[in-house]
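Weekly structure sync - notes
Attendees: PM, LS, DV (DV joined late)
Agenda: review two folding runs queued last week.

Item 1: First target. Sequence and structure tokens pasted below for the record.
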Amino acid sequence: MMQFSSLIKNMVKEALLEDIGSGDITAELISKDKEVRARVITRESGIICGVEFVREVFNQIDPSLNLEFDVLDGDRVSKDQVLFKVSGKARSILTGERTALNFLQSLSGTATQTALYVSALSGTKTQLLDTRKTLPLYRQAQKYAVRCGGGKNHRMGLFDAFLIKENHIMAKGSITEAIQEARNLHATKTIEVEVERLDQLEEAIKAGAHMVMLDNFSLSNIKAAVMQNRGRVKLEVSGGVSLNNIREIAATGVDYVSCGIITKDIHALDLSMRLV
């Protein structure tokens, strides 16, 4: 897997190419020697994520720019708080403004959303997991943002762990057959099985699954699954999870709750840059 610093460089390079193209014609209105200072504030509270993306944006545009950050990734910020200041050539700052803020506000949105769900689990043993429901090509960045918000990462992709779902089971023939084949193919990989009924839970446990995902189980069936499991495997609840019911789900004693909303239905933090 690509090192995160290399990922940031590549993502920023592509984002700048998309935005600048053959050149920033509006920035050409400003004298190339004009120097200014600017500051970025947040217009709402949240959790910050994406500082190194911002640094990389301005570094690739103009390494002579000076950035001063007042926050770090994972910091909680309040409305109207200054996040960072940048000084140097006006053209460079204005050219990098939108790309830098796009990274910062979208990743901060993921971190902020995650923190809301993590807070709802406070005092329970249940941990919040993310999913593969991420923006294409943004997965590593969004999963990093989940960690900044206090959540935990599920598998990164299709390559690092098994998640045997309904269609895999149907195609293979049974849960037991699917688990046996998984162990034969990649003995060291974690095997998780998605189940829809309590009898499938028992089959998955006996066949050697490491984790079982309870897919769209009712609250009563989640409680029954925890009792039936007796701590033999890790249990994850998925489907229909919201801020309204996550606390109640956690009270059943499950190990994990996974939630796609923290990466796919985010509200980007409202940020603003002003020259000073």
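Item 2: Second target, run right after the first with the same settings.
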Amino acid sequence: MPKIAIIGTTSWGITLGVVLVNKGLQVRLWARTEPEAAKLKNAGLNPALSTITFPTQLSITSSLGEALADVKAVILAVPSQTMRRNIRLVADYLNESTLVVSAAKGLEVGSSKRMSQVIAEEIAPRFWPNICVLSGPNLSREILSDLPAATVVAAENEAIARVAQKLFSTPNLCVYINTDVIGVELGGALKNIIALGAGMADGLSYGDNAKAAFMTRGLTEITALGAALGANPLTFSGLAGLGDLIATCASPLSRNHYVGVELTKGRSLKEITDSMTGMAEGVSTTVAAWNLTRELGIEMPITEKIYQVLFEGVDPRQAAVELMSAEARHELVGRKWKLFSLFRHQRHS
């Protein structure tokens, strides 16, 4: 029976542990401290997720050596800002056959790097081919309730992606593969910024027309940055792009959507995030993406406005007015965007 280690007791880490245990796999969930491990064992599953309790087969340990002994795959389901610290702990336990899966959706503040890049910097180069990323419209509570869902796993080596596909596939979780690691990671990370704005739109009761327009323009902005960084633009029409965007912008289960709604009530960002039990990755991702736009000189008006609301005290209503009053041009045109040239190339080829 394959042994799987999950690093991170986040809601997503716990969910993946339950899914894999229910497949009959031997799963060890690593908690950072013994008190945390004991609390999880005694309390069962986080009630914020579901009333489902931990399966008895799901092992919880605070011993990293125990968690990683003879495992076939390591799944890192940690907040993006702790990925570097966690992969450093894991690095010495890897071997050439260990699958290394990033299940985090964010960019590292400071470097603005994707999670697979962070992982690659901290492990031996001979292990790089085993790095893959998991992303898609995957709300933990629905997956724990065994509702139908789909996701995508990406690796530069298609054979590795297929290994991960087999690992995660269940009757109610359809797993697709992709080799565009850049696009899959950026789709999963950047949609959280748009979800913050979608929450603001709902909090301000702007209606479905405005929200649909905002989401669509947000997806175009994501695609433009992705193309500039080497992603395949078509990836953003898939599960890790449009699919995840729809789920995160529309669902009340989305933490980022919740933060956006609460900001329209006059609450401070610190007050909102301090009251939450999980991480809203869109907050830190906004910082990293905003830094990228400045570094690359790319026009990303939505990201800029979300940044101003989060960190410069701009009122969401004012940000919305400024976005609406901006000069409307061709949908695929923006400073240093490649989308219009790609469109024209396709049109005339």
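Discussion on item 2: The first strand starts at residue 3 and ends at 7.
Action: LS to circulate a short write-up before next sync.
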